[in-house]
Amino acid sequence: MSWHPQYRSSKFRHVYGKAASKDKCYDCVPITRNVHDNHFCAVNPSFIAVVTECAGGGAFLVIPIKQTGKLDPHYPKVCGHKGNVLDIKWNPFNDFVIASCSEDATVKIWDIPNQLLKRNITTPKKELLGHARRVGLIEWHPTADNILFSSGYDYKIMIWNLDVKDTILSKPVKILDTHKDVVLSMSFNTDGSLLATACRDRKIRVIDPRAGTVLQEGSYKSHRVNKVLFLGNMKKLFSTGTSCWNNRQIALWDQNDLSVPLLEEDLDGSSGLLFPIYDSDTHMLYVVGKGDGNIRYYEISPEKPYLNYLMEYRSHSPQKGIG
């Protein structure tokens, strides 16, 4: 009879969060009041971008990472959308290119200059006109440069190739028409060969974007899914959502079998969404509550129990977005 100790050694047992001092924060940023369930900010090694409140149309701010402190009220914006901006994402291959999508049913690609903005940027590098209704999500392909996925309230996911010379594109390379309702979340695996989606019809799907076919589809009656995330190349999916009793819930899935989750856990009774973010280098997973000040973090391991709770960061100020 072998004896196994109950504890496990972790490299990250003592990870803890700490709010930055005031001089290292970005102050007086007019964050959007929109209630759309999205990140509302995006960050890369050079810039932080934040969707902002503005009259007539949609805009976002792009601030160099080093430019902390109080923001000038007349700081230039990136504005060219006729409706609220719903999602912004930096190009993973180019720190000076960002995509935005909006309630005006367009997706726009912007070039951000290397120096401080002197005036508003109003002309996009490219404009993608394909969706019939507002566009709620965009996602860059992780390994193919200049390939962008957009998902709209017309229930379609469109794949765009931005390597063409035209500035206005109205024909996507491919349309994934596999959803019967609004797509709430999209996530790629590490090499971009699979796309996972969470849909308002409560189903999680794993799609082969090249073929446009659904490889796996799962809906589990006790888990209403909101956000889904590929855990790097672990062949697992992580989802956040709510239980039948409206508790906030997390679940872990095998990407090849979505019939029953590997693990399901109720967290609390708050009503805000949970945003998951995964760092594949450290195998750390962060679950951020919208509308509360909690960030829980876990370590992911390939064998059971898969998900190891580490710590929780708590703040009194409610979170609106995450990057």
Provide the gyration radius in Å.
20 Å
**Strands of the largest sheet, in order across it?**
7-8-9-10-14
Q: What level of helicity do the residues show? A: under 10%
Shape: globular
Number of domains: 2
Number of helices: 0
Family: Belongs to the WD repeat coronin family.
GO molecular function: actin filament binding
WD repeats: 78-112, 128-170, 176-217
Protein name: Coronin
Describe this structure in words.
Strand 11 (135-140) and strand 12 form a beta hairpin. This protein is mainly β. The protein has strands at residues 26-27, 41-43, 47-52, 58-64, 69-70, 78-81, 85-90, 97-102, 106-111, 126-129, 135-140, 147-152, 157-161, 168-169, 174-176, 183-188, 195-199, 204-208, 213-218, 224-230, 236-242, 248-254, 263-268, 274-279, 284-289, 294-300, 307-314. It is 0% helix and 45% strand. The chain has 2 domains: 18-177, Methylamine Dehydrogenase, Chain H; 183-322, Methylamine Dehydrogenase, Chain H (7 Propeller). InterPro entries: Coronin, DUF1899, WD40/YVTN_repeat-like_dom_sf, WD40_repeat_CS, WD40_repeat_dom_sf, WD40_rpt. GO terms for molecular function: actin filament binding. Belongs to the WD repeat coronin family. Residues 5-69 form the DUF1899 domain.
